[in-house]
Design brief:
The protein is an alpha/beta fold and 237 residues long. It folds into two domains: 122 residues, Response regulator (Rossmann fold, 3-Layer(aba) Sandwich); 100 residues, Winged helix-like DNA-binding domain superfamily/Winged helix DNA-binding domain (Arc Repressor Mutant, subunit A, Orthogonal Bundle). 41% of the residues lie in helices and 21% in strands. The chain has eight helices and eleven strands. It has a five-stranded parallel sheet, sandwiched between helices. The chain has a four-stranded antiparallel sheet with strand order 6-7-8-9, covered by helices on one side. A two-stranded antiparallel ribbon has the order 10-11. Strand 8 and strand 9 form a beta hairpin. Helix 4 packs parallel to helix 8. The longest helix is centred in the middle third of the chain and has 19 residues. The radius of gyration is 18 Å and the shape is globular. Pfam families: Response_reg, Trans_reg_C. InterPro entries: CheY-like_superfamily, OmpR/PhoB-type_DNA-bd, Sig_transdc_resp-reg_C-effctor, Sig_transdc_resp-reg_receiver, WalR-like, WH-like_DNA-bd_sf.
Length: 237
């Protein structure tokens, strides 16, 4: 069974171009040219990935992202934004988008990013856990269940998006080890392209909002200035 992709894009030429190149990957793309129709389709059907334009004629792609994320926490979402619209990119990531592409974009890069997203989706959907990987990581009061895709902290369940879970899971497997943004893009998102470090920053901020007592002085996910981020095992208590 092929993976299904939903393209919510009002510019029909761009939507058709994306669909053609999704077919090249062996995927089944559906297209919606308005936000309301796209949101209804995304909520009523099961798609492995939603490719969502920010600028739509009837409603903001940011609102669609927020509503879709609330209804389907594990839905993979990639946003399309104007290259000059850094605010939209950051807002989209803060609202729960897993990734973004700036227009105009390279078709080959788009395909690579879609493949990376689908690899993560398939990993999350897989029931079996490789024997060499521990099924559960426990660090202090933080527990990450890699098989059930569940996180608890002080016995409280923490609701994470699929990408937030993958990021925390990766950091949890390497406590106290510092990773640069480039390394995290490679390891968690499955690619690295210059200029997309905002993706990492936004997901780190969202994890902190869900885990830290005081996000202005993070004790769990810490910044090592000039280097990157680490999960501080001493702060998980």
């Amino acid at each position: 069974m092929t993976d299904k992709i939903l393209i919510i894009e009002d510019e029909q030429d761009i939507a058709e171009l994306i669909a053609v190149h999704m077919h090249e990957l062996g995927l089944t793309p559906d297209k919606c040219h308005t936000g309301k129709l796209g949101l209804a389709e995304a909520l009523s059907q099961d798609y492995q990935l939603v490719i969502l334009d920010v600028m739509l004629p009837d409603m903001s792609g940011l609102d669609i992202c927020r509503q879709l994320r609330e209804a389907k926490p594990l839905q993979a979402i990639m946003m399309l934004t104007s290259r000059s619209s850094e605010t939209d990119r950051v807002l989209g990531l803060e609202l729960g988008a897993d990734d973004y592409m700036a227009k105009p974009f390279s078709v080959r890069e788009l395909q690579a990013r879609v493949r990376a997203q689908l690899r993560r989706v398939h990993s999350l959907q897989s029931i079996a856990v490789p024997s060499q990987v521990k099924a559960v990581t426990c660090i202090g009061k933080l527990m990450v269940d890699h098989q059930c895709h569940k996180v608890t902290y002080h016995d409280n369940s923490i609701n994470l998006t699929s990408t937030e879970f993958e990021l925390l899971s990766f950091l949890g497997k390497h406590p106290d080890q510092v990773f640069s943004r480039s390394q995290l893009l490679d390891s968690v998102w499955g690619y690295h392209h210059s200029g997309y470090e905002h993706t990492v920053n936004s997901h780190i901020n969202r994890l902190r909002n869900k885990l830290e007592k005081d996000v202005t002085q993070p004790q769990i996910i810490q910044t090592v200035w000039g280097v990157g981020y680490k999960l501080n095992s001493a702060g998980v208590h």
